[in-house]
Records
---
Amino acid sequence: MLLTNYVLYGCGSSDEAKDTQFYKKQQTTPQTLEVSIDASGVIEAISSVEIKSKASGEVLYLGAEVGDFIQKGYLLAQIDQRTANNILDQTKSDLEAANVRLVNAQKFLEQWDLGTNHNNMHAAFGVCIVSPEWLAEIKREPQPDPIEIFKNCVDEFEQTFNKLDINWSEVSFLERGEKMLPVQGGPDVLRAIYSPRSDDGILKAVAGDGLYIYVNWDKSGVQTSESIHQFGSSSTVKESPHYDDQMELFVGEKLKNTFFNIEID
């Protein structure tokens, strides 16, 4: 409850009091109090976002300036799309060409008869694909992805030979010292020869079933023996005449007499 006391002080006659008013009575209503501050300084945003285009090019349209209010979906700028569209078209063309290349390589591989003879035109590409499998097996590693191997071999042959059809005799070699001769055979075949990959695509035998011995007894019990070894009788001493003296016979798939004389009591 609001109590208001009015105290009036005055002098003079009562007629003068009637003409003089010392207060004003008015109904109380809500009003807005305006407060203004005059100051100088730098206005900084609470948060800012840097906007960059993923594509470069000439700006054709700029739809906002510093200080403008924008909303989600508002077009701020437009870049000339001709360069980006040209790159996209070229990428699509390259992808289509790569797919065609892989399809042709697949058809080429299907023609391989699994042979590794000198004149085999499919062996080099086929061996490139199967070799990582036996390398992983030897190293006791997980089997590699065959699709990835296939693509890598296509790239390797195009970069190294500029073709897939190359004679096996141009790729697979037996090397001893300064001698290097083309050799038939390959990984996981009857004439097993294992060669690591190289930067120039040339395969040099480092392992395989290289020792062959053929023993025969005639009707009278006379024994004969023929043999061959890809690394010779002296496999580690390069100065020995027997380091490379069996190379020609081995690559020619021929045998020599086994020189030994053992008497059994």
---
Amino acid sequence: MQPSKTVSNTVNHDANASTTVTATGSGPRRFSDLTPKQQALLRKFQNIGWGTVEDLFFEGGDPIVRPAPKVHRVIRLRGKGSGPTLHSERDFVLRDEHVTFFSFLREQQSGHIHRIEICDGLPAEMSVEEVA
């Protein structure tokens, strides 16, 4: 059994503040641990490579595909990271960013993510609205 691992990413609640989200080893660790809808979203992140996903709604810890979120891809014309990072194998160990992101969805259960920054196929930062 592997020891519990803690990872963190930044979540922007508004333009003036940010919070660090921390996920522990209790979240999904492998691609096969994700639901089919979560797997599809992870593949979408990988296909985007660099860019953003806007207006993603989720319910029960799963992304909602209708209405479809808006995707903005950044196409790098030169330099490292010009293509998306794809895993061709059917199952693989999730990166810390994936674990944190999907743990956030599971913990919150339902909501709206205004914007998700995708860097080299990984969710790097997200902006969510909360009622104070």
---
Amino acid sequence: MKKALTLILLMASIAMATVSDISNTANFALNGVTTEFTFNFPIPGSDTSQIDVILVTVATGLSETLTETTEYSIAATNNDFSTGGVVTTVATYSSSFSLTVVRVTPLTQTADLSTKSSVSYASLESYFDKLTMMEQDRFQDLSLTFKAPAFDSGTSYTVPEAAERANKFFAFDSLGNPIASTGGITGSPASAYGLTVTQSANAAANRVVIGLDTGDDVQFAGITGTTGAFSGLITANAGITLGADDDLIGSATSDITINTDKFTVAGATGDTLVGGTFDVVGNIDPTSYETTRGGFLDEDAMASNSAVATASQQSIKAYIDSLIPSSKLVVKGWVNFTGATATINDSFNITSVMRNSAGNYTITWDTDFANSNYALSICVPEVGGATTTGNISSLSDESCVIITKQGTGVLDFTPIMVIAIGTQ
């Protein structure tokens, strides 16, 4: 009796650890910096092979199980895995990835107890802990499986045998029982044509199957620029968006029409018809326009003499500038100046006005005349009712000398005006 009491008291005095964390999984978002990841669930003993470290690509959901030692290491918390541990990855992973640490407890029992052997309380507890962890692992697995609610007891969830469900879809009949279906929510098989569409090897083969290259009309909610060729009518209800390097090309006989008749490029003739305002942001290259039916010409000499083509601003200016030197109808130089000081008030094609003496002036042209056979007009104001005149003393291609008089005497007038016409 005394020995039994001692045993009971000894057992009562030992503190028993518990497995209180029911999770066997820890998930981590990555940031390209952190390499240490702490998990709080226990593992049996110190065997780190019971831990799987899984790297997941966020965008695709594809996963990869990393290899211990070469890609990560595991250390116990305070040298004891009963409260978890720390996974340290060799590499850093960006936010494009996530990390999952999961316990996978082996479904084995390695203890061999005999009726006469002694067993420590710690050993017994480790056996019970492992059983608890195994149960937790199975619970986690079951939580990720397909299952029916508890009240749905009248339905059979046994799937058809392999031969019946091969190459078919998992579906449910009208009673909610699983069936192997070839398509459709009622279990109706797909048509032979439907199977050829879904089983096409690639997009090009699929276009042939559904007849896009046979002239059928195709209607889209919107078209974004991409590589591809279509025949027949294409209607884009939400607009056509083309990228920087994309082209919208019609055949030699087909038209490209935008908003009915608002903008049309005729395939047969190449004519562009605009039914509204035609706004151009940027420059128009004159050389890219056809001229046989009008278009845009850039000819400095106006050699084509077209009755329908539009000339460029530059070509008009160049043509007019080319006419001025040889024209005998255009004023080639003029000046308005004060006689007493030879100060120029305004002028055109004048280099200088020099007062040689009272009423005697030399006017020098900026652009010379072709010769001295040009016409000169001199105007002076009337003074005191007496006769005033402007006279030519001499002409050269570079300059002229004029004399202004009142009666027979020379006089400085204000203003004195001179105009010259001739060939330059």
